[in-house]
Amino acid sequence: MLIGLDVGGTYTDAVLLDGQQVIKKIKKPTDNEHLLDTLVSTLDPLLDAAQGEKLERIVLSTTLITNLIATKRIEPAALVIIPGPGLNPNTYDYHVPDTYLLSGAIDYRGREIEPLDQQNLKNCAEEIKKKGIKKAAVVGKFSQRNKKHEEEVASYLKEHIPNLCVMMGHQVTGRLNFPRRVHTTLLTLATQANYNSFYTEILKLLKKRGITAPLYILKADGGTLSFELSAAKPVETIFSGPAASTLGVLALTPEGETSVVVDIGGTTTDLALILSGRPLFASRGARVGDRLTQVRSFATSSAAVGGDSCLEVEDGALKIMPYRKGPAYCLGGPCPTPTDAMRVAGLTELGDEQKAIRAMEILGERLKLNPYKTAELILDKTAERIISEIEKMFLSWEQEPAYRIWELRQKKKVRPHNLVGIGAASPVLLPLLGKKMGCNALIPPDAEVANAIGAALAKVNLRLTFHFDTERQFFFIEENGVQEKNTDVKTLADAESYAMNRLIEEGKKLGIAVDDKPELVYSEVFNMVRGWRTGGRLIDVCVQFPTGILKQQEEGDH
């Protein structure tokens, strides 16, 4: 049996599956102040329903980190960068007011070609201390080849600024592209404390219940990561919730379908695209706002609009605010929300009708509308806001190589016409979205817990990133820190072949089925020139088992 658990900012969903059959499903409001209580009340009924049957694994997804970023509720941090020569730091705007540039340089092979300027570093530390900043990201160019400068800076800052939390770029990613590494490090730093709190609560629950089944968390690309490893790289789980939505729709719709996934929750609306049964990937990595990262991800978007979005009237106009203050007014919350409008419009029986009407009266007095016209306006505005996000995402999706290939196969320029709605508010809002967009609006069975189903059925996979130096006849694996000599790898083809075979070996040790052929995530080669000849190569190769959902056993299989 499998358990899937999706911890959202508004609701926590959980399912117990036997194969692909839903044995029991639970949907509970998320109490972010007492998360452990929410998890216990959600998980316990599933354990009871399992009746002592063996749990094969538990997979979690969460929109908590996504919600923090979407609603901009993250603590500010200082950014300390060591860009080295050849990169004008003024070319990039990292959107960090407290950015400090340090002298010093590491070359592409990891050799120090310019030491750190100690006075420069001292001045930087004094400024950060003076401003009372509690977090700092330290990122140097080519730090993934030599972490010396990053560690020197981090050590100095922590020594001279008590209780400063420091995150270094080489800890987060080993890929080239300095600006993306900066963004990825900043996001990791911004979300780590919240994620570690979540991680601690989960461990308490498992210990309390004596659960020994393997525990995984869903990544942004639909793959899984052991919970222990995820604490070091929470950035990998930034779009865990949208990935669960996408896998949930894959599980709940006929194979090979093309659909726009619309997951309307209480805090955010998550969007994704499935083309002929295959989720669309973001070829350049996850985009958070206007920043590209090095997180491999489905091409998803998370908009700060949901059933519990706070509603206000400013200068006589209705405003949907990008945050949630609590549950809907009809459920005892502090402010009017789209959920209250749904209740007044007779589209849901959730909450107290009189309180919902009062919420509409509060807004209607300033809009000069009666409660029912106010509710109609709110639903219309909410739908328009979501449609605007879908249109913006299509502009982004249409630039993806995989989308263009899919379009060529259709032999005409056409957009997908199926909207598949999941999440608490989807049954109410999706028909309105479909009508306005001229699309088929589909709500699959068990749509309200689709994220949890997607998490439960996510394939357990493994990713390994290899860094080869052919001149030194040496390589290391980023994920597990393994460092070994190797005399066989001389070309990019050699490296890719070696990485694939090593992945299969490591997968067998972990009990991962190798039914699917491993896939190449990326590979890069850099020639080192001595005089007029190539002296060696630096080769980076990332491979993994494909992501996706577990298929139901065919009849007769054992």
CATH class term of the largest domain: Alpha Beta
End-to-end Cα distance, whole Å, is 15 Å
Instruction: Give the proportion of residues in helices.
Output: 25-40%
Major sheet details: 6 strands, mixed
Query: Widest sheet: strand order?
Result: 3-2-1-4-11-12
Uncertain runs are: 552-558
> What value does the Rg take, in angstroms?
25 Å
**Overall structural domain count:** 3
Name given to the CATH homologous superfamily of the largest domain: ATPase, nucleotide binding domain
Query: How much β-strand is present in the residues?
Result: 15-25%
Total helical segments = 15
**Content-based structural category:** alpha/beta
CATH topology of the largest domain: Nucleotidyltransferase, domain 5
Total number of strands: 27
The best one-word shape is globular
Q: In CATH terms, what is the architecture of the largest domain?
A: 2-Layer Sandwich
Average predicted local confidence, pLDDT: 86
